[in-house]
Write a structure and sequence with these properties.
The chain has a domain of 57 residues. It is 79% helix and 0% strand. It has four helices and no strands. The relative contact order is 0.14.
Length: 89
């Protein structure tokens, strides 16, 4: 009986709730990634055709891939917290 009482009183950390809400928003609105990817690939193709320097090309590539990397880290950190979630067994 004490286990059920402690489960009812368990609350998530506010940071985990905020990250989970962000992931849920992007999963529900997956189409938001499509215009971003079109712009990113269009920009990279334009820079390739225009013959910009390699340093400029890779700088733009890293800047445009930053949201994807941040989303991956967001999912990893949230998932790692949920695996090691403190709470009753």
């Amino acid at each position: 009986m004490t286990r059920l009482a402690s489960v009812r009183d368990f609350t998530w950390h506010p940071g985990v709730m905020r990250r989970t809400a962000g992931i849920k928003f992007l999963h529900e609105n997956w189409w938001l990634a499509l215009p971003y990817l079109v712009v990113a690939f269009g920009l990279l193709n334009y820079m390739q055709i225009r013959a910009t320097s390699d340093q400029q090309f890779w700088s733009v590539f890293l800047i445009m891939s930053l949201p994807i990397a941040l989303y991956s880290v967001l999912c990893f950190v949230t998932g790692a917290f949920l695996i090691d979630a403190p709470g009753p067994i």
